[in-house]
Each structure stands twice: as structure tokens, then as C-alpha cells.
């Protein structure tokens, strides 16, 4: 890549997530002696973002680019080594950026939690990205970074062979703090993602023509609702993108490095039965309305009403963000000894359990922007530790052999082993 390019350009810098990304980019670029710019449609708005979120940065380049203007997108990507793309929903606005980045030899990271978008990009552009030496990595924020890299961390620390991992997400607000905790853009992506979930079967048939080995014992679901011994409260299946992202990483590790793929199931835990009822009702109404055009319009028009106050068009305020905490607890079952081949099945039941945890503050935007920008920095600094010289990859596959987990540990995202027991 040309040395006169900016190291990082934040595209969609005036959006809710984009502003936090600018703030973290300014911080990390100063630490790493890197250069950055901001991009979007309106110069005045971009100037205001720099003034508020990067006040100590001097002469930050402003690039005008519109995702609907192909030439402007190409000119923007030609000026960067890595594009930090904060312009969603990605199913509508992501592909032009990916296409332009591959054409101009520019790496691309984003915070998509949309399986259809991510898997479609892998299907259509993975080979071209590899040939161009470009990395395209989605899901670089909350909640897939803690889950996907948490699984990689657990595999590193297990000291044997893992059969299955169950993950439990917990989100907490400090006592007395109430208000929206998610931005409208996240809500919008979820609405369209669920509406088009039927696309995934055909996508995956094309993307994964070869089945993974039939590994045993099979990981059985704990059911829609249960109580877990490692996550106090009421737990239910987590229907976000975490499981699909993690399974893509596990498939990559099997196909690339011949590592036994871990079976994964993801859950979310709430503290009280009342919270369980609230989440269940919101989920049921959301699922029902997302099936029709009229229902989707209602969800998008009245996000606060249909989310019971969790989502607003204005997004969470600073106080709410600062008082939010998250954890992902991972329970890994497996064996103390590895078999010779990743396709071999053990004859004895699992005899080892390892519990790990990933935790931090301000998950939706503080942690997300930190992780997002650190993925860009990692590509720039540790490309030699990443696989295949390019490709469309999930974060676990892309960054599993880099120091990204160590970097996150230094910046507020804690990875730790809670316990290890053997029978």
C-alpha cells in the first residue's frame, strides 16, 4: 500500500457509533504515531465531530464521500490503509465499501452484527480479497468480539481438547440508572436482519458445501429458558449473531489449521423473572412485527415503545453509557488429552471443565469503539500474524494469532480464567 495514505479513515463519522470511533481513533493514533481522517457526506458535521471528539488532534483530513456515489467511495478508500466503516445497516450500505476497498487495496473493518451481510460478503468477495491482499473483518464490536475472541482465549487456556462451549452474556446498569441503552441503528439492523433471516439457509448452502465432521458428544441446547450454574439468574437462547460468527471462526480453524471445531451455543442471562418476562414479550412482539412490511414500519417508527424503553432514536446518554457493564461467561467441556486427528471421537465422556470470562464497561459503544479501532491497528501492525494474506473473515479467525486479546486487556476488556477442574 502507498506510504502516503492515511493509516485509518473513519467512514460514517457523524453517526452515533462513528463519533465514538473518531474519539478512540484519535487516542490510539496518537499512541501509535499514526495518521487518521474522517469521512462522510457533510463537511460541517464532520468538522463538528472533530471539534467535539478529537479536540487535541491537529489538521485532521476531512473526506467527503457518499455510499450512493461510487466514485466518491473509491476516492476515499484510495486515501486509507484501513477503513473503519460505521455506516449501517450494512445490508444496505456495506457492500459498496467492501467492493471499493478490495479494488483499491484497502483493509476494511466494521461492527456489523448482521449474519446475512457478513456471510454474503464472504461468499462473494473472499477470493478477491485474498488475491488483493485485503482483510475484510466484520463483527468487530460488542457482542461478537467478547464471544468470538473469548472462545479463542478459552481454547488457548484449556490445556487439552474442547468439545463444546456455552456462553452467557449479562448486561447490567447501575442501580438507579434508567434510560435507552441501545442506538436506533442497532435496532434498525436487527429489524431487517430478522425479517430476512430466511436468506441464511441458501447462503450457507453455497458458502459451506462441505459439512463439518460429526463430532460427539453432541452439544444439546439447554432450552429456551433455564437456570445455569455459572450465570445466576434466568438464561435464554441468545438470538444475536454471536453463534454464527463463532462457528465461522471454528470452521476456519478446522479447514486452515486442522483444529477440532468447537460446538457453540450462546445464551443471555437476566437477573429477575420480571426481566425475563419483559425480554420475552419484547422478543415475541419484535419477531411477529418484523415479518410484515407494516409491522417493520411500526418497529422503526416507534423504537422506544416496542423496546420498552431500551432503544431510542437519540441513543443512550453519557451517564447511561458510563454505568453499563457487561460480562460473557464461557463454560468449556472437553478432555485433558488431544486425539491425533481433529475428526476422531473420544470413547470416554468429557473429563475437564474450564470456565472463563470476558468483562468490561460501556459495551454497546465504549467497548465497541475500542475494539473496532484496535482491530484496525492490529491489521496495520501485525499483518504478518494474520492468515492467508487477506480474506473476508470473522474476528476470531482474523486475529486469533495476533496480540489483539492482549491489547483489549490493556484497554478495559478483561479476559480471565475463572476455574479449571478435572474428573
UniProtKB/TrEMBL annotation:
One of its GO terms (cellular component) is mitochondrion. It comes from the Eukaryota. Keywords: Membrane, Transmembrane, Transmembrane helix. Coiled coil: none annotated. The keyword Transmembrane applies. The chain crosses the membrane at residues 267-289. InterPro entries: NAD(P)-bd_dom_sf, Saccharopine_DH-like_oxidrdct, Sacchrp_dh_NADP-bd. The keyword Lyase does not apply. Residues 8-137 form the Saccharopine dehydrogenase NADP binding domain. This is Putative saccharopine dehydrogenase. It comes from Ooceraea biroi.
Amino acid at each position: 500500500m502507498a506510504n502516503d495514505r492515511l493509516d485509518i479513515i473513519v467512514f460514517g463519522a457523524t453517526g452515533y457509533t462513528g463519533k465514538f470511533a473518531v474519539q478512540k481513533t484519535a487516542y490510539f493514533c496518537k499512541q501509535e504515531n499514526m495518521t487518521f481522517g474522517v469521512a462522510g457526506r457533510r463537511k460541517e458535521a464532520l468538522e463538528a465531530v472533530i471539534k467535539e471528539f478529537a479536540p487535541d488532534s491537529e489538521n485532521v483530513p476531512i473526506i467527503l464521500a457518499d455510499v450512493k456515489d461510487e466514485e466518491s467511495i473509491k476516492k476515499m478508500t484510495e486515501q486509507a490503509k484501513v477503513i473503519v466503516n460505521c455506516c449501517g445497516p450494512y445490508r444496505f450500505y456495506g457492500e459498496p465499501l467492501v467492493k471499493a476497498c478490495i479494488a483499491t487495496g484497502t483493509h476494511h473493518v466494521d461492527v456489523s452484527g448482521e449474519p446475512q451481510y457478513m456471510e454474503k460478503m464472504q461468499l462473494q468477495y473472499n477470493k478477491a480479497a485474498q488475491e488483493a491482499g485485503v482483510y475484510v473483518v466484520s463483527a468487530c464490536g460488542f457482542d461478537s468480539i467478547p464471544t468470538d475472541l473469548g472462545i479463542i482465549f478459552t481454547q488457548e487456556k484449556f490445556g487439552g481438547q474442547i468439545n463444546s462451549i456455552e456462553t452467557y452474556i449479562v448486561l447490567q446498569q447501575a442501580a438507579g440508572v434508567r434510560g435507552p441503552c441501545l442506538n436506533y441503528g442497532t435496532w434498525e439492523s436487527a429489524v431487517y436482519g430478522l425479517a430476512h433471516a430466511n436468506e441464511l439457509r441458501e447462503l450457507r448452502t453455497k458458502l459451506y458445501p462441505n459439512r463439518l465432521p460429526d463430532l460427539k458428544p453432541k452439544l444439546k441446547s439447554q432450552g429456551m429458558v433455564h437456570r445455569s450454574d455459572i450465570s445466576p439468574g434466568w438464561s435464554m437462547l441468545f438470538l444475536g449473531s454471536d453463534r454464527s460468527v463463532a462457528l465461522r471462526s471454528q470452521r476456519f480453524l478446522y479447514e486452515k489449521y486442522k483444529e477440532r471445531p468447537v460446538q457453540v451455543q450462546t445464551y443471555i442471562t437476566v437477573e429477575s423473572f420480571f426481566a425475563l418476562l419483559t425480554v420475552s414479550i419484547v422478543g415475541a412482539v419484535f419477531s411477529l412485527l418484523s415479518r410484515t412490511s407494516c409491522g417493520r414500519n411500526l418497529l422503526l417508527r416507534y423504537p422506544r415503545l416496542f423496546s420498552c424503553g431500551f432503544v431510542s432514536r437519540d441513543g443512550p446518554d453519557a451517564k447511561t453509557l458510563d454505568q453499563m457493564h457487561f460480562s460473557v461467561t464461557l463454560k468449556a467441556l472437553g478432555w485433558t488429552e488431544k486425539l491425533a486427528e481433529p475428526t476422531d471421537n473420544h470413547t470416554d465422556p468429557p473429563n475437564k471443565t474450564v470456565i472463563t470470562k470476558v468483562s468490561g464497561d460501556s459495551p454497546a459503544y465504549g467497548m465497541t469503539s475500542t475494539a473496532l479501532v484496535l482491530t484496525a491497528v492490529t491489521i496495520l501492525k501485525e499483518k504478518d500474524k494474520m492468515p492467508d494474506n487477506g480474506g473476508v473473515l470473522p474476528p476470531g479467525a482474523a486475529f486469533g494469532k495476533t496480540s489483539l486479546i492482549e491489547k483489549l486487556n490493556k484497554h478495559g476488556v478483561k479476559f480471565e480464567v475463572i476455574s479449571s477442574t478435572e474428573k
